[in-house]
Amino acid sequence: MTTPPLPADMTTPVYNRVALIGLGLIASSMFWAMKRAGLAGEVTGFARSAETRDTARRIGLCDRVCDSAAEAVEGADLVVLCVPVGAMGAVAAEIAPALMPGATVSDVGSVKGQVIESVAPHIPDGVHFVPSHPLAGTEHSGPESGFAELFDNRWCLLVPVEGSDPDAVARLRALWEGMGAHVDEMDADHHDLVLAVTSHAPHLIAYTMVGVADDLRRVTDSEVIKYSAAGFRDFTRIAASDPTMWRDVFLSNKDATLEILGRFTEELFALQRAIRTGDGDHLHAYFTRTRAIRRGIIQAGQDTAAPDFGRGPKK
Ligand code: NAP
To answer: What is the arithmetic mean of pLDDT over 94-111?
Structure first.
């Protein structure tokens, strides 16, 4: 994957001070990506645990790590909530009194409808709220897992709420583009449905498959691990994702995920029937259709054709 050229005007910061609340994979990647391109005058950070704050200070994550969320957001013209979806509302309530008039609050949550519902009521008059979601991640979490290239050539979806200030949206777009992402705008319902198909349901299926294999492992000793083939290994990588984050994703994107899982179950039954009845034509036609989807993803630059999906060892 190549690093996209930075926009010509990236010598001046997009924001004077950015506050990152929550210092895990996404926040730390944002910090390194902002530093790489000089997108923020100063970046402050806060995490709830002293351990994470200490780690952040030790590795130079953020220009200033604060001991309270209120201190971190003071004077910030952009505040980004980088905590699990289920914690967004409480964090927004905590920082609200300390927000600077004219500031923008954003978030990076994987679900948008529920986050907007829980955060928007706490946003004071005169402060802009522009939710976002970078479609980029790994199965790793915590302050040491981030890297500057995470968003390169990935999509970041902006989900402006009713009455979102166009200038605030444009500025946030410039930040994400400066961090290497392609930016699109979408409404919250559409976002949550698209993500249920492309991310949430696949994660649930991976969790299930690994759970099934684990049950089987008890029967066949360690053969499931020993002879683990590429398909299963990919499932285990996805199923190693952060349990808190994914619990919150499913609880907060309930309707769309259940809708997609219902369709999934119907298709699975149809394939099951084709196997039982020996309907090879059905199976072949189905797999031909799905193979074309994989080619489309590679052509769109969203993955590589390499056998390890281009993920290789981290530099
Ligand atoms: P992460 O690495 O697990 O970090 C989460 C951060 O949130 C940590 O600093 C943690 O603090 C803090 N936190 C956890 N629970 C909290 C609570 N109840 N109240 C306040 N703070 C809390 O997570 P991440 O992967 O960066 O994910 C952050 C957000 O980005 C989530 O909303 C997720 O849906 C979204 N997202 C994730 C991915 C992905 O692939 N990982 C991709 C796109 C978007 P401590 O360290 O002090 O515990």
So the answer is: 98
**What is the spatial distance between Cα 18 and Cα 62, in angstroms, rounded to a whole number?**
10
**312: pLDDT confidence band, cut at 50, 70 and 90?**
very low
Phi, psi (degrees; rounded to nearest 5) at 129? -125, 115
Residues having CB within 6 Å of any atom of ligand 1: 22-27, 47-49, 52, 82-85, 87, 91, 108-110, 133-134, 137, 141-142, 242, 245
Name the residue of 20, 21, 23, 26 whose CB sits within 8 Å of the most ligand 1 atoms, as the mutation to test its pocket: 26
Fold for domain 15-186?
Answer: Rossmann fold (3.40.50)
Task: Give the residue, by CA position, lying nearest to ligand 1 atom 4.
Answer: 24
Domain extent listing, the chain: 15-186, 190-299
Q: For residues 87, 92, 95 and 100, what is the CA-based torsion angle, rounded to 10 degrees?
A: 150
CA of 28 to the centre of ligand 1 (A): 10
- Ligand 1: distance of its center to the CA of 85 in Å? 8
Average pLDDT for residues 172-185, to the nearest whole number? Answer: 98
Within 8 A by CB and 6+ apart from 263, the residues are: none
- Residue 30 CA, ligand 1 centroid: distance in Å: 13
Total Cβ atoms within 10 A of residue 160: 20
E strand spans, 114-249: 128-129, 132-134, 155-158, 182-185
The two structure tokens encoding residue 284:
């072949």
Cα–Cα distance, 223 to 214 (Å, whole number): 10
For the chain, the first-to-last Cα distance in angstroms comes to 13
Cα 202 to Cα 154, 227, 277, 278: the distances in Å are 19, 23, 27, 27
Residue given tokens 């759970």 in the structure block: 211
CATH 1.10.3660.10 is held by the domain 190-299: yes
Q: pTM, whole model, 2 decimals?
A: 0.90
